């Protein structure tokens, strides 16, 4: 059929919009819309990235519209011809979905002043990665006296009924499962060993949280003492006085690229490019690396300092040694069946 | 008899006209998207290009999916029962109290509605947690050695959902019990019935419309309570709303998610229809004089 769901949605929405706002088809100019993530991301971008962008671009109008990756994709999908968003921010899984559904334009890397300075993993032609998210071990230093050093520590008998994980809905949960599988000889294409390991982890499991946010709150309640956790989320908890510490396991902390993309058919392509440039610039990345944001930079010109230098890596060379990257193209191929298996098998 | 039959013609034409704006909004923003959802569910592939009943067959022949549906419907039944058993005495007490106590009761019942579900749910995490209120009290009394696991269990979830949805049960009950003539129970007592017999034979049948209304509301709210289910139930306890979310958001499998919602919708409709059939029978009860 010619009438697929997206076209139907698009035409229905366009027709509706044309009726509701007759002047819309004439007035194309709208501010640049940047769909960042909610929470600490929004705060950081509002305080640092937006002012830097406006300073460099004669106070160009910009709107932050924070939402989850999946919602960004749904919104752009619903109005492909005239997308309500100009710049999207994505975790690795959703980024591939957005690219696969032909929602983003390639990043004009040859025009960019900073693209070549990024570490190679961040140089993605469809949209560079201005930041990393890092997943390592999180623990409560009041109850866990010897800091853990390896993912394998989660299986120690002393953590019986103390370990928390998330299900595979989140990037964190899926990425962690892959890492566990790798530790035992598996890979992105084969996580059977990871599921076996999960089975053995069951006596230690206190909670399988529905999302990383819910997992973090369990530390506050003393429900769990140790879990895989996101570096930035833990810093926020720590700043609020929750007893949590982050360590990069010796197998390597899992690094997820957060990529930034120009939406296809955006009416503000030039400004969208400029915003991404600002996000890649060493100035913005340096500010965002420092307290209270502690966002891991991808530009090699940024000198690591502060908490990130202390806990994660002193420089790009060490960062590349201590971080592991995952092949999300492979992961996405089988993620559905893993989620199904997790749904069925993991009951505590 | 108060069953008045005064000029219904005029009255209905008025109410139809007044209902038009909402009716239109309902058609555009609910019926239309629902039709679209149904259209989407009739496709076999993720991109929605191949027609077929594949998604429905996949769900209805998969024991796991059916178990998710079953446990969701069961959860609703358990929560509804808990709300009824705990809520009925409150509504009863309300009708037997003076106006000051009545205000207090209505405050207590309504107060939860004034805070968001998220806040109420988080409160339950604090109460049920390993170092939560219940565990620390039990431990300080020496009743338990190690903390009980209450959060992320079915029991904890039912308790939290019952509290969160309680107003939906108590308010219709208060109205229904309030309509019962207090003389009826006195008459029953003077004719020699004990208080239990009076309750079962007189009060319970007369308050049946309130019970049915309360149960329908609580049931529908409990099975669709995505936030409470995922925060107190956790990530390994899978109910229909989370299943749907997982398929739609994480896996971008919209046709299957659409089929899940249509199946869920019909399952819930069946339960609601059951309740309202019971309600109609009960109304016969209540009007019998």
Automatic annotation (TrEMBL), chain B:
The keyword Transmembrane applies. InterPro entries: MetI-like, MetI-like_sf. It is a multi-pass membrane protein. Pfam families: BPD_transp_1 (PF00528). Residues 69-275 form the ABC transmembrane type-1 domain. The keyword Transport applies. The chain crosses the membrane at residues 20-42, 63-92, 104-128, 211-234, 254-275. Keywords: Cell membrane, Membrane, Transmembrane, Transmembrane helix, Transport. It is found in: Cell membrane. Belongs to the binding-protein-dependent transport system permease family. CysTW subfamily. This is ABC transporter permease. The lineage of its organism: Bacteria, Pseudomonadati, Pseudomonadota, Alphaproteobacteria, Hyphomicrobiales.
């Amino acid at each position: 059929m010619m009438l697929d769901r997206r076209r139907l949605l698009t035409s229905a929405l366009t027709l509706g919009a044309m009726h509701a706002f007759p002047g819309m088809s004439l007035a194309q100019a709208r501010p640049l819309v940047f769909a960042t993530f909610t929470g600490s991301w929004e705060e950081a971008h509002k305080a640092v990235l937006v002012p830097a962008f406006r300073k460099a671009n004669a106070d160009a109008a910009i709107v932050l519209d924070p939402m989850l990756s999946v919602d960004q994709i749904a919104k752009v999908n619903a109005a492909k011809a005239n997308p309500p968003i100009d710049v999207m921010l994505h975790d690795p899984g959703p980024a591939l979905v957005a690219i696969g559904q032909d929602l983003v334009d390639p990043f004009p890397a040859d025009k960019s002043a900073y693209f070549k300075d990024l570490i190679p993993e961040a140089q993605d032609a469809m949209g560079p990665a201005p930041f990393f998210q890092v997943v390592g071990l999180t623990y409560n230093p009041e109850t866990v006296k010897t800091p853990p050093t390896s993912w394998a520590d989660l299986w120690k008998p002393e953590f019986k009924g103390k370990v928390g994980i998330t299900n595979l809905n989140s990037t964190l949960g899926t990425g962690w499962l892959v890492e566990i599988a790798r530790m035992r000889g598996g890979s992105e294409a084969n996580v059977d060993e990871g599921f076996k390991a999960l089975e053995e982890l069951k006596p230690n499991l206190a909670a399988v949280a529905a999302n990383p946010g819910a997992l973090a709150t369990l530390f506050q309640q003393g429900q769990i003492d140790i879990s895989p956790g996101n570096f930035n989320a833990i810093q926020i908890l720590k700043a609020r006085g929750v007893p949590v510490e982050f360590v990069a396991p010796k197998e390597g902390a899992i690094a997820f690229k957060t990529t930034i993309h120009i939406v296809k058919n955006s009416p503000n392509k030039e400004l969208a490019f400029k915003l991404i440039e600002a996000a890649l610039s060493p100035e913005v990345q340096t500010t965002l690396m420092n307290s209270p944001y502690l966002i891991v930079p991808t530009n090699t010109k940024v000198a690591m300092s502060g908490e990130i230098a202390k806990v994660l890596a002193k420089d790009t060379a060490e960062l590349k040694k201590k971080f592991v990257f995952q092949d999300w193209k492979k992961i996405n191929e089988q993620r559905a069946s893993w989620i199904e298996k997790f749904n069925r098998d993991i009951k505590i | 008899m108060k069953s008045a039959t005064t000029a219904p013609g005029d009255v209905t034409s008025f109410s139809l006209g007044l209902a038009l704006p909402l009716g239109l909004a309902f058609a555009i923003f609910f019926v239309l998207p629902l039709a679209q959802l149904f259209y989407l569910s009739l496709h076999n592939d993720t991109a929605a290009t191949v027609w077929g009943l594949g998604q429905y067959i996949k769900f209805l022949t998969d024991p796991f999916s059916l178990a998710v549906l079953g446990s969701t419907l069961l959860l609703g039944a358990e929560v509804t029962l808990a709300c009824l058993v705990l809520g009925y005495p409150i509504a009863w007490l309300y009708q037997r109290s003076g106006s000051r106590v009545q205000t207090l009761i209505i405050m207590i019942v309504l107060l939860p509605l004034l805070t968001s579900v998220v806040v109420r749910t988080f409160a339950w995490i604090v109460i049920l947690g390993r170092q939560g209120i219940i565990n620390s009290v039990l431990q300080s009394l020496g009743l338990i050695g190690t903390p009980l696991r209450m959060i992320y269990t079915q029991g904890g979830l039912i308790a939290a959902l019952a509290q969160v949805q309680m107003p939906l049960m108590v308010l219709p009950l208060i109205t229904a019990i309030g309509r019962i003539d207090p003389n009826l129970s006195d008459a029953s007592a003077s004719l020699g019935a004990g208080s239990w017999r009076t309750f079962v034979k007189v009060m319970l049948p007369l308050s049946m419309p309130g019970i049915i209304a309360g149960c329908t509301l609580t049931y529908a709210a409990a099975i669709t309570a995505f936030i409470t289910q995922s925060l107190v139930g956790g990530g390994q306890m899978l109910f229909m709303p989370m299943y749907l979310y997982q398929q739609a958001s994480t896996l971008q499998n919209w046709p299957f998610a659409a089929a899940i919602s249509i199946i869920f919708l019909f399952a819930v409709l069946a339960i609601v229809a059951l309740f309202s059939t019971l309600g109609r029978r009960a109304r016969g009860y209540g009007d019998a004089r």
